[in-house]
Design goal:
Elements: H1 6-21, E1 32-33, H2 34-41, H3 48-51, H4 58-71, E2 81-82, H5 91-99, H6 107-123, H7 127-153
Parallel strand pairs: 1-2
Helix pairs in contact: 1-4, 1-6
Length: 154
């Protein structure tokens, strides 16, 4: 079970707020740059790895936040964070998705779908959806365990 650090919780809160306020018809409007996120979570610039390129501590923290979200049956929240020049997620986003066992054939298409899911999920502002996503994830894992146990006993 993943536990978020205080800095990761700050990132999670900031991204969740952006997603909740996002427009499902225009999910890109909920995006924030790495620099913008750094300024939101560390407005005084105390942690240069979070506030200035090359964002050495932000990237692993974003990955951890997305792993936490996937573990709880929700879309990858870090889809909201984009490169200032390209307006899209960096290559680490698709790499993390593959690590999390998502099928990623086209990096940008996957990111766009995940971005839409993040905004749709969080802007619904429905606590039942949040709970259902976590319960569904647990049930899926129990189903996998059950399948493995049956294979071993066969």
């Amino acid at each position: 079970m993943i536990t978020l650090t205080p800095a990761e919780r700050d990132i999670h809160r900031a991204l969740r707020k952006l997603a909740q306020e996002g427009d499902p018809e225009k999910p890109g409007s909920a995006c924030i740059t790495y620099k913008g996120l750094g300024q939101v979570i560390d407005s005084e610039g105390r942690n240069s790895g979070m506030t200035r390129p090359p964002f050495r501590t932000m990237f692993p923290a974003l990955g951890h936040v997305s792993m936490y979200e996937v573990e709880h049956g929700r879309p990858m929240l870090s889809a909201l964070v984009v490169n200032q020049d390209t307006g899209t997620a960096g290559p680490g986003f698709a790499e993390l998705a593959r690590h999390l066992q998502f099928e990623v054939k086209d990096d940008e298409a996957f990111w766009r779908r995940e971005l839409e899911e993040v905004v749709r999920f969080w802007s619904a502002n429905d606590p039942v959806l949040v709970l259902d996503a976590a319960v569904d994830r647990v049930l899926d894992e129990l189903k996998q365990v059950k399948t493995l146990l049956r294979k071993r006993s066969a």
